[in-house]
Amino acid sequence: MGDSADPRKRAMADARERVDRGIAHIAVAVVYPANIRDTADFKQLRATLKKAELEFAVCAEAETSEWRRGNLDAVLDELRRGHDLLAQDDVLTRSVEHLQIGMSGLINVLVSNPAAIDRIAKVLGVHAEVEKKAGNDEDGDD
């Protein structure tokens, strides 16, 4: 509410908590004008909300938007952007999971075949460091 003490902070904390607790993947912090509270008739409230300029921010698991000003359409646009980000994150997560599943099968095969590991390492140019034994000199003196 636009007339309460630090309304942005309170609205953001509530929205962030919903996301952090897993209640929602995305939440909206909204600060609406104080005059909206005084609208007693719900028919008027709907029209008033459509015209009102709101302050809002969208909280998602990945990020939280900056505070913006706009009408309900602006809030919906920001929610759509947040949803798109969540969908992209989900696609990336599933892709990584598929890659991990495929790699675990390859790793299981390689672990049982040390010669294959040596050949792959040679092709990739990866060589294990060989530790020098203590007391071993290059000139052959013992």
Q: How would you sum up this structure, described in words?
A:
The protein has 142 residues and is mainly alpha-helical. 53% of the residues lie in helices and 11% in strands. It has four helices and three strands, in the order αβαββαα. A three-stranded antiparallel sheet has the order 1-2-3. β2 and β3 form a beta hairpin. The longest helix is centred in the middle third of the chain and has 40 residues, at 72-111. It is rod-shaped, with a radius of gyration of 29 Å. The model has no long low-confidence stretch (mean pLDDT 79).
Shape designation? rod-shaped
Strand element count: 3
Number of helices: 4
What is the H/E order? HEHEEHH
Kindly report the average pLDDT value. 79
Largest sheet, in brief, is: 3 strands, antiparallel
Report the end-to-end length measured between terminal Cα atoms: 86 Å
Strands of the widest sheet, in order across it, are: 1-2-3
Stretches with pLDDT under 50, minimum 5 residues: none
Q: Give the percentage of residues in beta strands.
A: 5-15%
| Percent in helix | 40-55%
Structural class: mainly alpha
**Rg to the nearest angstrom?**
29 Å
